[in-house]
Amino acid sequence: KTDAASTASAPPMTAPSTRSSSDPTPPEATTGMPTESTTARVSARSKPDRVPSRIGTGPDSVNLTNSPEESTLNIGYGYFDYAPVIYTDINIVNGVPVAGGTGSTPAVPYRNKATAASGLLKNGKTTIAEITDGTSNTIAMIECAGRDERYVSQYADGNVSQTSIGYPYPIRGSGVSVAGPHRFWRWADPGNAFGISGQPNNLAATALYVRENTSWPSSSVTAGGQGGANEEAYAYHPGGVNALFGDGSVRFLKSTINLAAFRYAITLNGGEIISSDQF
Q: Which of 155, 194, 257, 273 would give a disulfide with 1, using CB separation of 3.0 to 4.6 Å?
C-alpha cells in the first residue's frame, strides 16, 4: 500500500497512549480468523470479531537498531489509530464488486490495482476545486486501530524511499540505510496513510494477512497482508468504524457497508451519487 511514501521521521512521543488494553482475548486468537464473506455485503455479527488488543498502553518499545534517534530519550513513539485515505482500488463494475483482480487476496478479494482512484488526501496537494464529489461526500481519514510492533511493513524504514526489503531477511536492517521495516503506526508518520481495498473490520481467513505474533519479528509473512488493521479500516467499535469527511463531519460506517458505496465515498471526483443511509 502506501507507507512507502514516507521518508520522514516523526519525533518520539513522551506522552503515553490512553488506549485501554482490556479487550478480551478473542476466540480467533486460538481457533483462527473468521473468513470474510465473498458477497458484496458481509453478514452482520451480533458481536464484532476482534484481533487481540495492543501490547501495553504506552509508547511502542524502544528499538535502537530500527530508530537510533530513540537513544536520546530512551522512549519509543506514540501509536496512531487513524489513517489518511489516499486512494481506493475496490473493483466495482456497473455497481457490483468484482473479485479476482490484480493484488486481490482472501483478505481483500475485490481488490484490483488497475482500478485505483484517488481519494481526498491523495499523494501531493489536493485543492478544494478538485473534490467535485463534494467534501461532505468524501472520506478524508478513517480509523485503523490497534497497530503496534507486531505489524510489519513491506517497505524499508529510514531514508530509502519505496525500497522493498524482502522477507525473510537475515539481520534486522540488512540492505537498508537505517534499518528494518517502516514503523507505520508511529504518531503523525506519513506512513499512517494508505489506500482502501476491502470491507471495514475485515478479518482474513488466516492470521497470515493480519500481523505477526511477536514484536519486532525478524521475518514476516504478514507484511502488507491487509487483514484487520493491516493497512485497512479497522476499529474496536461494535459493527463499524468512524470516518472523518472532508467537511469536518464524522460518520459511522458499518462493517456491512456495500463495497460500491464505500468506493464512491472515497473517490474525490468519481461523480457517483450516494446517500447517507448507504453507510
A: 194
Q: How many CA atoms lie within 13 A of 86 on its CB side?
A: 18
Q: Tell me the C-alpha distance between 120 and 88, whole Å.
A: 11
Handedness of CA 126, 128, 134, 139 (dihedral sign): positive
117-118 and 96-97 strand pairing = unpaired
Distance of CA 150 to the CA centre of its chain: 14
Return the C-alpha cell found at 213.
505474533
Q: Write the pLDDT tens digit of every residue in 122-172.
A: 988 999 999 999 999 999 999 999 998 888 887 766 544 444 444 443 333
Please state, in angstroms and as integers, the Cα–Cα distance from residue 165 to each residue in 113, 149, 161, 185, following that order. Answer: 21, 17, 11, 18
Task: Report how far residue 260's alpha carbon sits from residue 276's, in angstroms, rounded to the nearest whole number.
Answer: 13
Grid cell of 160 as nine digits: 530509502
Is residue 192 a contact partner of residue 83, using CB atoms and an 8 Å limit? Answer: yes
Amino acid at 144: C
Give which of 266, 261, 263, 267 is closest to 279, Cα–Cα. 261
List, for residues 187-242, the tens digit of each pLDDT value: 888 888 999 999 999 876 667 888 888 887 767 788 888 999 999 999 998 899 99
- Cell numbers 482475548: residue: 25
User: Exposed, middle or buried: residue 30 (CB in 10 Å: 0-12, 13-18, 19+)?
Assistant: exposed
- Closest of 106, 45, 22 to residue 240, by C-alpha: 45
Is the separation of the CB atoms in 227 and 165 below 8 Å? no
Q: Tell me, yes or no, if the pTM score tops 0.85.
A: no
What mean pLDDT value characterizes the chain? 75
User: E strands within 103-227?
Assistant: 117-118, 139-143, 194-196
Q: Which three cell numbers stand for residue 148?
A: 503496534
